[in-house]
Design a protein that fits this description.
The protein is α/β, with parallel strands linked by helices and about 240 residues long. The protein has one domain: TIM Barrel (Alpha-Beta Barrel). About 40% of the residues lie in helices and about 15% in strands. It contains ten helices and eight strands. It has a five-stranded parallel sheet with strand order 4-5-6-7-8. Strands 1-2-3 form a three-stranded parallel sheet. Helix 6 links the parallel strand 5 and strand 6.
């Protein structure tokens, strides 16, 4: 199986699935457009019962008890499979106390949490602070700290076995702007070597770029068929309990 842990519903579902087909991706985790008031219900209505999609709501902890209720509804009534935290867009520190009720709810519901990483309010160390408090909650760290905090991201993942690093990093790669067909994300290889291939999960950040472009960039690392199988789908299937 091949899977993509992150695509955004800023284009039509048909367009998303068409680009996933190009890369041979079977299952894709789809999130709403990143904004202060995410349209999670619209995400549900768009995905319907499509067997190739896993819906993941974007939840804003600023909304307090309302956010907790929204997450519970999204999972128990709408059938969504995870939670996305986007501190960079919704403006909060990811390890702030107001995030804890959402993390406790994620733990109770047994869902996956995907967290945008970067500088300042979503620094990998802050994500590590959350992960250490909820070791039973699988966390996918989007962008793996790129562009400036990759080493910290790997170190945090070394200390917290519930953290998985997502490969949505090519937008920051210095070769990407010049020629995406020459980008070689050596940071992914370092993560594999230090954490093991079981802790790295393929994501495209579609539609910012096509899944096939990200996949080919990782294939240029020549990690081997077994490692690629884990990264490109088997890890996602295990985390989301798809098999």
């Amino acid at each position: 199986m091949r899977g993509d842990f992150e695509a955004y519903l800023t284009i039509s579902l048909d367009e998303i699935l068409g680009m996933e087909d190009e890369a041979g991706v079977d299952v894709v985790v789809v999130m709403p457009k990143p904004e202060m008031e995410a349209k999670n219900k619209e995400l549900v209505e768009t995905l319907g019962d499509n067997p190739r999609t896993l819906g993941c709501p974007l939840i804003n902890p600023h909304k307090g008890a309302e956010a907790v209720a929204e997450l519970k509804t999204a999972v128990t009534e709408w059938g969504l499979k995870g939670m996305k935290l986007m501190p960079a867009i919704q403006q909060y520190n990811v390890d702030d106390e107001m995030v804890l009720p959402l993390m406790r709810t994620a733990q109770e519901l047994g869902i996956i949490v995907s967290i945008h990483s970067g500088p300042d309010n979503c620094h990998p160390v802050r994500i590590g602070n959350i992960a250490s408090q909820f070791p039973e909650v699988p966390i996918i760290m989007d962008h793996m700290g790129f562009p400036d905090n990759v080493q910290e991201a790997i170190e945090v993942a070394e200390k917290n076995s519930n953290i998985y690093l997502g490969t949505t990093i090519l937008r920051f790669h210095r070769r990407w702007a010049d020629d995406p067909d020459e980008a070689v994300p050596i940071e992914v290889k370092e993560a594999v070597e230090r954490l093991g291939p079981e802790r790295v999960v393929f994501g495209s950040n579609l539609p910012e770029y096509r899944p096939i472009q990200v996949m080919r960039a990782i294939q240029r690392l020549e990690l081997g068929e077994e490692t690629e199988s884990l990264i490109f789908g088997e890890n996602l299937a295990r985390i989301y309990q798809l098999s």
